[in-house]
Specification:
By secondary structure, this protein is mainly β. 10% of the residues lie in helices and 43% in strands.
Length: 279
């Protein structure tokens, strides 16, 4: 098991992270082992933005998130925005390229009237982790099947893609629902996740970015406070600004990213997030 963890370090965990519409279908899990800590890292070799979550894994007894534990601290480094224990966030390690992994596609099934999903695909990563991808028509149905919270008090209609991913290993299980919406002249992407099993209580989560710019704060109408950070990239002589916001409460973690949207538009969306951050 230890050798598998050394190879994977989270490879199985965030297969639905996708920062651009065009490459939704080009997701590959990557792996890395960095620093003196045992770090779980999930990244995706995409043509544009790469996103990564990291979490400290307990290799002994199972330690699951404490009930109602809120991870409030958000901090920014050169290549990441993170929440949780800052001691576990190694910016240099996050910035490095990920290595190759072995991904075996093992099954495909189209949905029928007996299920809510459109299609199901299964893959095995390094012979150790199994990812099952379910495609849906809408966010509400996906989170219902996954048993996750609804993060919004409104229903966004202009859906680009919705996916529920179940990642399973002998040590932990992760449920992820990811959805992208068109919004005005841009789009926004939601990644909502829960990890249970052999996970340390002082977990840290990060989003890997090529660069970090223009850190700012916004207090939504709900009273929730958000840290916004921009990633600036160039593509076809165009400057692309993608804004990221971390979400972390109880056992949930994830993020919302906004592409080609003004701060006013971003704030309007954040005002519809109905998560209650409890003390």
């Amino acid at each position: 098991m230890k050798d598998n963890m050394d190879i994977l370090l989270g490879n199985a965990l965030k297969p639905c992270i996708s920062p651009s519409v065009e490459i939704n279908e080009e997701i590959l899990n990557m792996s890395t082992r960095k620093s003196e800590h045992r770090i779980m890292s999930t990244a995706f070799r995409l043509a544009k933005v790469a996103a990564v979550f990291i979490a400290i894994i307990s290799m002994s007894s199972v330690v699951v998130y404490a009930a109602n534990k809120i991870i409030k601290e958000v901090f920014v480094t050169d290549h990441a925005i993170s929440v949780g224990n800052s001691d576990y966030v190694d910016d240099a390690a996050i910035a490095e390229d990920e290595g190759e992994v072995d991904i075996q596609k093992t099954g495909h099934e189209d949905g029928d009237d007996s299920v809510n999903w459109i299609s199901k695909d299964v893959e095995v990563v390094n012979g150790y982790a199994t990812n099952t991808y379910y495609k849906y028509k809408d966010y509400a149905t996906a989170i219902m099947d996954a048993g996750l919270d609804n993060w919004f008090n409104t229903t966004y209609k202009d859906v680009v893609s919705v996916e529920y991913v179940l990642s399973e290993t002998s040590d932990f299980t992760e449920k992820s629902v990811c959805v992208r919406y068109y919004y005005n002249d841009g789009s926004f992407f939601v990644s909502e996740n829960i990890m249970t099993g052999n996970v340390a209580s002082d977990v840290a989560h990060s989003i890997k970015l090529k660069n970090t710019n223009n850190k700012r704060e916004y207090t939504a109408t709900s009273g929730n406070e958000y840290t916004l950070i921009d990633e600036i990239t160039e593509e076809d002589s165009r400057t692309i600004i993608t804004t990221f916001v971390m979400i972390a409460y109880d056992e949930y973690y994830g993020y919302i990213s906004f592409e080609n949207l003004s701060d006013e538009e971003i704030q309007s969306i954040l005002d519809t997030v109905m998560i209650e951050y409890r003390d």
